[in-house]
Amino acid sequence: MQTLSVARLYEDQKQELQLEPLTDSLASRLEISQSDIHRPGMALMGFVENFLPERVQILAQTELTYLATLKPAEVHAAIDRLFKFTMPLIIVCKGLEVPPYLIQRANECQVPVLRTPHSTTPFIHSLTLYLDHMFAPQTSVHGSLVDCYGVGLMFTGRSGIGKSECALDLVERGHRLVADDVVTITRRHGDVLIGTGNQLLRHHMEIRGLGIIDVQSIFGIRSIRLQKRIEVQVNLTDWSEHLDVERVGLDEKTVDVLGVAVPWVQVPISPGKNITVIAEVIALNYLVKVTGGYSPAERLNQHLMELMKRKSAARVWVREDTE
């Protein structure tokens, strides 16, 4: 299970979220492992059956106002009830003051406490967005990613088959390069796969026989983009007479990437074949299916079936009429 230390969260977000440590240390006995947060108001009141201690705990106006209504002994009892559980982190919103006893118990139990001046709801949204990004499933694929007519085409295939050259040709035709050689894929909410390039390589490409080129310097800022949703995987394959290649398009294939089914198109490579134009048609065909809501291959198949039925019915009618 992927985890995140409180110290890493603090270093990453202390400026943006204006985090202020209230405890002596940021070391926690339990690291953050979930992007969801929890508000322990019911636990402070005594109902702990549905308390989720493994989540980041948020204390705000409601919880602290409730504690302010209690007698000192009751405040201690409520806070002790909370610290019976092992928690990764407590964050206080709106810059509110907290009971000194809570900080004392947090230091004893090694539960870091941070404070932010941000309002509760916007802060929760910002923190959840950060945690979602940190815990998002991620993988790397050897290939090239291009934004072609607004469609994210990821080219894959064996080393040296021409993925970078195809991507370069698309850029020369006005499309935009996202990543070459290594595509880092992150799964966001739902079934959204976002592809980015390697931070070190940026928008450099290796063209065999030429070497390393800087796409942005040659083609301009409009030729690149930092990230793009991956919508179609184009697999470049060496041509073979025995290769089973889709000829009609009725059998739409997909490939699993981080648990998401991505449309998969296999394109055989042979001398004289214009792969760049085929890639553009793949992107446009995907747009037709998504925006138009139909498949050209399926429509043609239905048209042929209806034509065959009409001819079959006509032959039956002629036979019956002659009899």
Describe the 3D structure.
The chain is an alpha/beta fold and 323 residues long. The protein has 10 helices and 15 strands. The chain has helices at 6-13, 41-45, 61-68, 72-82, 100-109, 120-135, 163-172, 215-219, 275-292, 296-322; strands spanning 20-21, 37-38, 56-59, 90-92, 113-115, 138-148, 151-157, 176-187, 193-197, 204-207, 211-214, 227-229, 232-238, 253-257, 260-269. The strands form 3 sheets. Strands 12-9-8-6-7-13-15-14 form an 8-stranded mixed sheet. Helix 7 crosses helix 9 (275-292). The termini are far apart. The model has no long low-confidence stretch (mean pLDDT 89).
Please render the helix and strand layout as text.
Elements: H1 6-13, E1 20-21, E2 37-38, H2 41-45, E3 56-59, H3 61-68, H4 72-82, E4 90-92, H5 100-109, E5 113-115, H6 120-135, E6 138-148, E7 151-157, H7 163-172, E8 176-187, E9 193-197, E10 204-207, E11 211-214, H8 215-219, E12 227-229, E13 232-238, E14 253-257, E15 260-269, H9 275-292, H10 296-322
Q: Describe the main β-sheet briefly.
A: 8 strands, mixed
By DSSP, the count of extended strands is: 15
Rounded average pLDDT: 89
State the helix count: 10
Order of helices and strands: HEEHEHHEHEHEEHEEEEHEEEEHH
Extract low-pLDDT stretches: none
First-last Cα distance: 77 Å
Describe the global form: elongated
Q: Strand-residue fraction? A: 25-35%
Which structural class best describes the helix and strand composition? alpha/beta
Rg of Cα set: 29 Å
What topology, given as strand order, has the largest sheet? 12-9-8-6-7-13-15-14
Q: Approximately how much helix is present in the residues?
A: 25-40%
